Amino acid sequence: MGIPAKLKSHLEQAHVGYTPVSHVPTAGSQYAAMVMHVPGKEVAKTVALRAGRENILAVLPASYRINMKKLAAAAGQPVALLDEDRCNKLFPDCDPGAVPPFGELYHMPIYLDKALAEDPEIIFSAGTHTDGVRMASADYVRLAKPRGCSFADKP
């Protein structure tokens, strides 16, 4: 499938350096990290949630778990996972469960766990179960403008 056109255009228009990364099909970011032989802390997973009446994206290391209480405190309201049908409607250009961490493409604010921003580079899903993107963490933050906070727990 390759990188969805919407994401590729977004990265290229911003003149952001990135490297496409292909891998065997995986059903999650932690598995993608394993098949790419990269620590799970360096691979971003993106989770779609509802905060009050707003859809949001939480971006955290693949090997971490969302602490819903901490994320709710950061968002200022209770949070809950979006169901699969809603995600499929919000991200029609992506494989189910393979959401890229660019909420601005889908009109959604992004919450970035600070543990992920500590690494100089991150790898994240490009919107498919076989394609990823590697880029500098600083470039990601500059482009996506996430709200940095601590909401993830180590395994």
Gross geometry: globular
Helix content: 25-40%
Taking all residues together, what is the mean pLDDT? 92
At the first level of CATH, the class is Alpha Beta
Number of helices: 6
Q: How many domains, as an integer?
A: 1
Strand segment count:
10
CATH homolog superfamily: YbaK/aminoacyl-tRNA synthetase-associated domain
CA distance, first residue to last residue: 32 Å
Question: What is the chain-wise order of helices and strands?
Answer: HEHEEEHEHEHEEHEE
User: Major sheet: size, sense and barrel closure?
Assistant: 8 strands, mixed
Structural class: alpha/beta
What is the second-level CATH architecture? Alpha-Beta Complex
Strand coverage percent: 25-35%
Which residues form runs of ≥5 with pLDDT under 50?
none
The Rg value, from CA coordinates, equals 14 Å
CATH topology: YbaK protein
Can you describe this structure?
It is a single chain. This protein has 155 residues and is α/β, with parallel strands linked by helices. It has one domain (5-153): Alpha-Beta Complex (YbaK protein), CATH 3.90.960. The protein has 6 helices and 10 strands; from the N terminus they run H-E-H-E-E-E-H-E-H-E-H-E-E-H-E-E. It has helices spanning 5-13, 29-36, 68-75, 84-90, 114-117, 137-144, and strands at residues 18-22, 43-51, 54-61, 65-66, 79-81, 110-113, 121-125, 131-136, 147-149, 152-153. The strands form 2 sheets. Strands 1, 2, 3, 5, 6, 7, 8 and 9 form an 8-stranded mixed β-sheet that branches. Strands 4-10 form a two-stranded antiparallel sheet. A hairpin with a 5-residue loop joins strand 7 (121-125) and strand 8 (131-136). The longest helix is centred in the first third of the chain and has 9 residues, at 5-13. It is globular, with a radius of gyration of 14 Å. The mean pLDDT is 92.
